[in-house]
């Protein structure tokens, strides 16, 4: 079994939750989202994030707006919709339950 593949799958499993969490308090453009994920040691590439942002938007969880940039092309800023905030709240509860369960199991001798 390839451990790197397993680790990548674990990261992918929480990526949607992490992106929604990044946007819970403020809008951000893709580079900011990627930087936040990378700073948290959640290694992702643009090719993974762009399709996920589009899917989250199409699912009604995110909206976006364009803003002119002084240093290049306009930037697309993403933010949570009301449905997205409700969805994130549900994921937070599920994450707590899952995390508690995994910690309980993995700490047993």
From TrEMBL:
Record-linked Pfam families: PadR
SUPFAM superfamilies to which the protein is assigned, alphabetical: Winged helix' DNA-binding domain
Superkingdom: Bacteria
Domain called Transcription regulator PadR N-terminal: residue spans: 19-89
Protein's name according to its UniProt entry: Transcriptional regulator, PadR family
Organism: Flavobacterium fluvii
């Amino acid at each position: 079994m390839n451990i790197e593949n397993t680790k990548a799958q674990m990261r992918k499993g929480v990526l949607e939750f992490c992106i929604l969490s990044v946007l819970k308090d403020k809008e951000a453009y893709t580079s900011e989202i990627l930087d936040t994920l990378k700073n948290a040691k959640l290694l992702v590439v643009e090719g993974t994030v762009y399709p996920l942002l589009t899917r989250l938007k199409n699912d009604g969880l995110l909206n976006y707006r364009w803003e002119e940039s002084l240093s290049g092309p306009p930037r697309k800023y993403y933010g949570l919709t009301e449905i997205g905030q409700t969805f994130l709240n549900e994921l937070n509860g599920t994450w707590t339950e899952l995390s508690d369960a995994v910690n309980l199991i993995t700490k047993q001798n």
